[in-house]
Design brief:
37% of the residues lie in helices and 14% in strands. The chain has helices at 9-19, 21-27, 36-45, 49-57, 75-91, 114-118, 145-153, 170-180, 198-206, 234-249; strands at residues 63-64, 93-94, 97-98, 104-108, 111-113, 131-135, 138-140, 160-162, 188-190, 216-220, 257-260, 272-273, 277-278. The strands form 3 sheets. It has a 9-stranded mixed β-sheet with strand order 1-4-6-8-9-10-11-12-13, covered by helices on one side. Helix 10 (234-249) links the parallel strand 10 (216-220) and strand 11.
């Protein structure tokens, strides 16, 4: 025989709230902040859009990490989150200041369609972001211009941008370059594990003259550094990275900059170029 562990009183309470939408929404003002994450997860997974929106409006934390909950794309629940963010910021607005704007938006290892991306700039009060993480996102979008519009909105506040592992292509990065060049407060920038050619990377770096506050920046090795089977061509890798470094140093003096390959097919480690090439064990 198998026995199921009975639900805890807290779990029963969350289930009761989700069954009574009006009660759940009215109870948020008195709900202990420690209960918010679990209830939000249940409401999100159960696609209780009105409760999700109300919880985002009342969210007591500076970070709202929704990416780990998005196992399958759902435009309706995603829109509920963005609507809640808008209402949250409007509620906190006073003449000249936002008292408690959302500081971090993090979505990781999920799918984003073109429709999803189109909602980013529509959240017109989402303009106080300091940290934007879209890591490991499968971007089923041919055009990243909506993301570029969002970057323009947050250009005066954004301090870190992480787009690692999105497999962004040349044409998509081109949509972002004008906005990226305006993000003068950036201190950390991560573009690893994307697919850019040498000319596109040179174009990107050529537009970073204003990013003088950068402390750490990470770029992928250009696709010309690999052979037809995806193996690194060491001499070409070193040559291209040196050329890219010279392009950047002609504009500003970077503090810490890394060019990295994808993980090696054999050992799983990367070749990295900073002050010079550091090769994976297979290439030493």
């Amino acid at each position: 025989m198998s026995f199921q562990t009975p639900p805890t009183l807290e779990e029963l309470g969350r289930q009761a709230l989700l069954r009574n939408e009006a009660l759940a929404i009215s109870a948020l003002e008195k709900l202990p902040w420690t209960l918010f994450p679990a209830l939000f997860k249940d409401a999100f997974n159960g696609r209780h859009t009105r409760i999700v929106r109300a919880m985002v409006e009342a969210w007591p934390f500076p970070c709202l990490p929704v990416g780990t909950l998005m196992k399958t794309p759902n435009l309706e629940i995603f829109q509920a989150v963005l609507d809640g963010v808008d209402s949250h910021l409007k509620r906190e607005f006073h003449p000249g200041c936002l008292r408690n704007p959302l500081a971090t938006l993090s979505i990781t290892r999920r799918h984003l369609s073109q429709s999803d991306l189109n909602y980013f700039p529509l959240s017109h009060n989402l303009r106080q972001l300091k940290h934007l993480v879209l890591r490991g996102i499968l971007l089923f979008a041919s055009c990243l211009k909506p993301l570029g519009v969002l970057l323009e909105h947050v250009a005066e506040s954004l301090q870190s941008l992480d787009l690692q592992g999105c497999r962004i292509k040349d044409s998509q990065l081109t949509d972002l370059i004008p906005a990226l060049s305006k993000c003068s407060k950036l201190t950390e920038f991560n573009l690893l594990d994307n697919d850019f050619s040498m000319p596109t990377l040179k174009d990107l770096l050529g537009h970073t003259a204003n990013l003088t506050k950068m402390n750490v920046e990470q770029y992928p090795a250009p696709i010309q550094s690999y052979d037809d089977y995806g193996y690194i061509l060491v001499e070409r890798f070193a040559q291209h990275c040196l050329e890219l470094m010279d392009t950047l140093r002609a504009l500003r003096q970077p503090k810490r900059i890394l060019f990295s390959t994808d993980p090696c097919h054999e050992c799983g480690e990367r070749c990295v170029y900073d002050l010079g090439p550091r090769l994976c064990p297979c290439q030493r």
